[in-house]
Predict the structure.
Amino acid sequence: MAGVAAVDATLPVGVPLAGYNHGARQYKYFPVPNPTKYTNWMNPSKGVLDPTMAKAVVIQDGSGNHVCIVSIDAIGADGNLMHLAYVYASAMGFPIPEESVVFGASHTHSGPGGVSESFLWQVAPAVDLLVPELQQKMARSLAAAMMNAYHNMKPAKMNIGIAQLLGVTVNRRAGLSPYVNRDSVDPNLGVIRIDDLTGAPMLTLWNFAIHGVCYGPGNMYTSSDIMGKANQLIESQVGGISMFINADAGDIDPSGPSCAGAPNFVGSNKIAQAVIAARSSLVPSPNVQVASFSHYVDFGPAQLNATLARFANCTSGGPLDICTFCRLVGCELNPPLGGAWLENVPRFTALKFLIGGTSTVLVTMPGEPLLELGWWVRNDTLDAGYAQTLVAGYSNNHMGYFAPPNEYMVGGYESQLTFWGIDT
């Protein structure tokens, strides 16, 4: 059994757009506030290029086990927002335990802000101050997608596969990190195909590592970016609903040529055709087993570890030889930041699928894992006996970046926003 649903979750024109804290997005006299109905330190959006979509799929196996996957065209899966969505859905009669639900964000950098309770993101300002009205509206849209998917359940068949997609993305740390080059990307394109028993398409869910940054900080119109356009193409050519779950995209951007042709991005078409080809190669089966496992991890207070080495790539020299001095004595700014500043008790969830003897696991990451960490996870799940792995980054919570130790020491933006030290 499976059910799918899509709900238009577009917030009003004038909301802040989350993802960039500079350019046209930031009020020019920041940190002086410039309050409008929905913004404080950021400039209000001017219109809508694409609707913000909340989508959900519910899957039930023959033993009555349920799992649910939810997606939203947003910068991150804020844990408080997602929990509020579950509370609303539960009040409407949604019976699946929260620990069996995965909430994923596409990571578009032109989605709505004003919906996060994490104060660090608010004052960056990357999302602007929380507006309860906006948070509640988005939560209710997510809840509606969940309930509709549950009510839409009917006999279905499905399969999961992993294809390879190159030529669309690049590693943005190339030139900074000695461990990667521009072609150091995650080529894994996971695809979940669900049809009804007549063969009519119900869902195409795809999992791929890509930042939603084709539109830059000069864009003031809500958009689902390159991934949203790919969803639109898949739905128009296949039918049913297309859902996107991001992966280990912490250092993975779309290539310049992929972003050409806005709003009909060249890369969107390449992605859509690869997803459609992968879907066509899958033979769906009605014999499916599902299971879910969740674990909460207390990370404790965040550690900024703000040093010249990490924030300025400066380990020697500098004015009055300050960089050498700081490297030797370990000068740093490292105030502890508790849960009000940044989520620190995330939920890690694994969804297990067994179809035709092939085991697949979908594992969540509560933020932005870099490429190397994604490979660690894939290798660990392979050692655990799973034939296929879908890495669901930007899911359940949003805690910033997750840089592995070597990249943490290199520094750069992704290292600076890895908030729990070298062993994060």
